[in-house]
C-alpha cells in the first residue's frame, strides 16, 4: 500500500514523503490516526501543491525548537533519591522523573523527547539529550543527589 505521510513517523519517513507500507500497518495504524493518506492521483497532486506549506511549517517548528533549546541549555535539574551503599540508588531515575522535575521548574517537555540510553542508577552529574526537532537537540544537566 502506498501512502503519503502527513507527520514524521519514526523508522518510516518524514512528513510529505511517499512511502510503501504493509496493508495492515496502513489501514490499522497510519490512516485512523491521520498520520497518512492514501497515495491516490489526486492526493499526490495535492501533495506537490502542499510541499511549500510543509517546508514553511518545518522552518517555523525548527526556529521554535532552536529557541527552546537555548532556554533549556542553561537549565540544571536536581533530583534527590534514597541511596544505599556506594551511592547506588534504590530504584532509578527515568525520563519521566526528569520530565516532572523540568515541569516543576516551569519547562514543559514531552518525556518522549528526552533520550536516556538507560535509567540512572547512581548519584552524580549526567547530561541528558533532549530531541526537540529532527535537526535540533539540547543537553540538560541532571544532578542526582542523596536525600538528607
From TrEMBL:
InterPro entries: Ribosomal_bL9 (IPR000244), Ribosomal_bL9/RNase_H1_N (IPR009027), Ribosomal_bL9_bac/chp (IPR020594), Ribosomal_bL9_C (IPR020069), Ribosomal_bL9_C_sf (IPR036791), Ribosomal_bL9_N (IPR020070), Ribosomal_bL9_N_sf (IPR036935). GO terms for molecular function: rRNA binding; structural constituent of ribosome. Belongs to the bacterial ribosomal protein bL9 family. Binds to the 23S rRNA. One of its GO terms (biological process) is translation. It comes from Cystobacter ferrugineus. GO terms for cellular component: ribonucleoprotein complex; ribosome. The lineage of its organism: Bacteria, Pseudomonadati, Myxococcota, Myxococcia, Myxococcales. Keywords: Ribonucleoprotein, Ribosomal protein, RNA-binding, rRNA-binding. This is Large ribosomal subunit protein bL9. The keyword Ribosomal protein applies. It comes from the Bacteria. Signal peptide: none annotated. Residues 13-40 form the Ribosomal protein L9 domain.
Amino acid at each position: 500500500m502506498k501512502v503519503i505521510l502527513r507527520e514524521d513517523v519514526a523508522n518510516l519517513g518524514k512528513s510529505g514523503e511517499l512511502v510503501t507500507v504493509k496493508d495492515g500497518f496502513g489501514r490499522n495504524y497510519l490512516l485512523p490516526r491521520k498520520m497518512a493518506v492514501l497515495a491516490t492521483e489526486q492526493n499526490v497532486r495535492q501533495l506537490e501543491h502542499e510541499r511549500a506549506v510543509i517546508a514553511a511549517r518545518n522552518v517555523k517548528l525548527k526556529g521554535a525548537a532552536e529557541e527552546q533549546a537555548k532556554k533549556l541549555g542553561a537549565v540544571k535539574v536536581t533530583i534527590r533519591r534514597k541511596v544505599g551503599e556506594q551511592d547506588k540508588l534504590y530504584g532509578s531515575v527515568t525520563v519521566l522523573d526528569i520530565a516532572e522535575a523540568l515541569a516543576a521548574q516551569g519547562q514543559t517537555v514531552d518525556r518522549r523527547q528526552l533520550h536516556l540510553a538507560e535509567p540512572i542508577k547512581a548519584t552524580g552529574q549526567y547530561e541528558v539529550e533532549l530531541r526537540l526537532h529532527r535537526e535540533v537537540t539540547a543537553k540538560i544537566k541532571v544532578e542526582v543527589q542523596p536525600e538528607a
